[in-house]
Amino acid sequence: MQIEGISAFVTGGGSGLGEATARMLAARGARVAVFDRDAAKGAAIAAAIGGMGLQGDVTSEAEVAAALDAVAAAQGAPRIVVNCAGIGTAGRVLGRDGPLPLEAFERTVKVNLIGTFNVLRLAVARMAALEPMEDGERGVVINTASVAAFDGQIGQAAYSASKGGIVGMSLPIARELARVGVRVNVIAPGIFLTPLLFTLPEEAQKALAADIPFPQRLGDPAEFADAVCFLTTNRYVNGEC
Fold first, then answer.
1. pLDDT tens figures, 204-221
2. Torsion angle in degrees (nearest 10) through CA of 60, 156, 167, 76
3. Which pLDDT value is given to residue 144?
4. Catalytic option among 9, 117, 159, 224
5. pLDDT tens for residues 25-38?
6. Dist. CA 40–CA 44, nearest whole Å
7. pTM for the whole thing?
8. Which DSSP string do the residues of 102-170 spell out, in sequence order?
9. What DSSP line would sit under 12-65, residue for residue?
10. By C-alpha distance, which of 215, 163, 155, 162 is closest to 189?
């Protein structure tokens, strides 16, 4: 799918991987809607790229539906949807204070996995009603998993479960949505320099980078955004992680 002139919807677009994605899609000519829980951050990025800023929670059916409807009215129903919203709760199953609180596990799965599915299901319902484009394509959804989906570390049980769920659900969804011309792909990034890692001391950041063979550094969010653009424009990539 071409990017220029196309309506795009990016969750978690107020910072990190979502911000980089929103900026790059806009730079390549997309009409970008930035959806974020933090209204101020989302609005700031939207203003910087000439897009729309929308506040909301990915786990809320009403808030996501209202946002998608607002985007459709202003710039057309999104044909590009990128799910970047997520949280990175860490905690051992058996910590010093006892077992990991169930609420912490539930919250991580709810935001990362259920939130991703909520946005996807509501967005593709609208995509399916659009006129087909080249090769019969109506839209593309790109979900964000993590290397933790395959190689989780101690303390990442909840996070790995949520990201593994994103990987696991995306292929059957891609197979199902083939009939309406909507592709679904996943990116499983490694360690990227996002706001979550900015909070770590420089020594800790260097220690993480030291375990990366080459290039021995943390990922640049723009490199993630570049992968989003590749998966958007290459119509023959579908159901892949």
1. 778 878 888 888 888 899
2. 30
3. 98
4. 159
5. 999 999 999 999 99
6. 6
7. 0.94
8. HHHHHHHHIIIIIHHHHHHHHHHHHHTTSPP-GGG--EEEEEE--THHHHPPTT-HHHHHHHHHHHHHH
9. TTTSHHHHHHHHHHHHTT-EEEEEES-HHHHHHHHHHHT-EEEE--TT-HHHHH
10. 163
Tell me what pLDDT residue 40 has: 97
Q: What is the structure's pLDDT at 127?
A: 98
CA angle 230, 234, 240 (to 5 degrees): 80
**Residue reference for tokens 């051992």:** 92
Radius of gyration, alpha carbons of the chain: 17
Sign of the CA dihedral with 67 first, then 72, 76, and 80 last: positive
Residues 6+ apart with CB under 8 A from 100: 91, 92, 93, 94, 157, 158
Residue 199: per-residue pLDDT: 65
How crowded is residue 226: how many other Cβ atoms within 10 Å of its Cβ? 14
Cis peptide before 213 (omega within 30 of 0): no
Residue ranges of the chain whose pLDDT lies below 70: 196, 198-200
Q: What is the pLDDT of residue 200?
A: 66
**pLDDT number for residue 207:** 80
- The helix or strand, by DSSP H or E, that contains position 68, with its residue range, turns out to be helix 61-75
Question: Is-catalytic flag, 159?
Answer: yes
